Amino acid sequence: MSADLLRTFLSELDEYLPMFLVLFRKRDPAITNILRWLDAHDSNQNKRTTVLLGMPHCLCQDTSSILKTCEPTGPVEDVLKETSVGILIVYEDCSKCVVLQNQ
User: Fold this and answer.
1) Considering only CA atoms, which of 66, 58, 62 is closest in space to residue 31?
2) 15 versus 67: which is more confidently predicted?
3) Does 102 reside within a domain?
4) What percent of the chain has pLDDT over 70?
């Protein structure tokens, strides 16, 4: 029996999105600007992205080994080099991106 891992992951993520967003608002003032942006650009896709990027930041973890970003025309192989498990975020217009910096 096989499972659709992406569908399962997104389904579980969607279930916990509201709780994570409430936690972020209470716990981490460093992502206030991102949450304000999310309020103005509310979509499920944006909520997922905010939670995936905000979770390690909120937990004060270094995300450089698991969260990778690249442009659609970028060399994906170089970005994923030495990454066995991680999340790749492909963005088309970085001028609209809101990125959390590791502190």
Assistant:
1) 58
2) 15
3) no
4) 80
